[in-house]
What we know:
By secondary structure, this protein is α/β, with parallel strands linked by helices. The protein contains eight helices and twelve strands.
Amino acid sequence: MTDQRKVLLLEDDGNLGTVLQEHLQMQEFEVTLCADGEQGLTVWRQEQFDLCLVDVMMPKLDGFSFAEEVRKVDKEVPIIFLTARSMKEDKILGFKVGCDDYITKPFSVEELMLRIEAVLRRTGSTDTTNNADEIQIGSYRFVFSRQLLIRNDQEQKLTPKESELLRFLCLNRNRTILREEALREIWSDDSYFAGRSMDMFISRLRKYLKEDSSIEIMGVHGKGFRMVIDK
Length: 231
């Protein structure tokens, strides 16, 4: 299993902060929750994080000021603002101080997860497998550029879509992938017909990988899929 990605969550609403923390932990993030900007800045200076989720309106130190302090030291760590303020001027200021995305409350956790994964992919803060052309999947070797799945010198030629979907599953192994996330990433379309097509491709990949019982592409009811490799 890959190392957990570390998230610093700054949210002064205790109920919302706990809900977000629990949901992120379910998605296998390691989450540190802080209730104000000063506490968040202290924690950030003591540890390394893969992502900062920052409420704009916080006591002691607001989200914009927190981001400004972070950017004086670290230009790379992704920052997503969470805010009830939807004015254009606030969004412009958010991007000026260095945020990577800006999500307005109320939002769904599904939308938040899609935005988090998009930012992590864009900033290169995902699994180091991300740039690999050859990926080990249990006893299989997956060569993305050649669209080949190899086991015991037996080769299975994949279609371009099968290769893209398998690579996406590998990059997100042991994490639940929302159906909408996969459809937008691979098909650029989250319609009913694209969804049915994806289900067919998932079935094909399960068939190709069936010789290794340690590999499972699980359906997560009402959400999506999760590739689990028990090795």
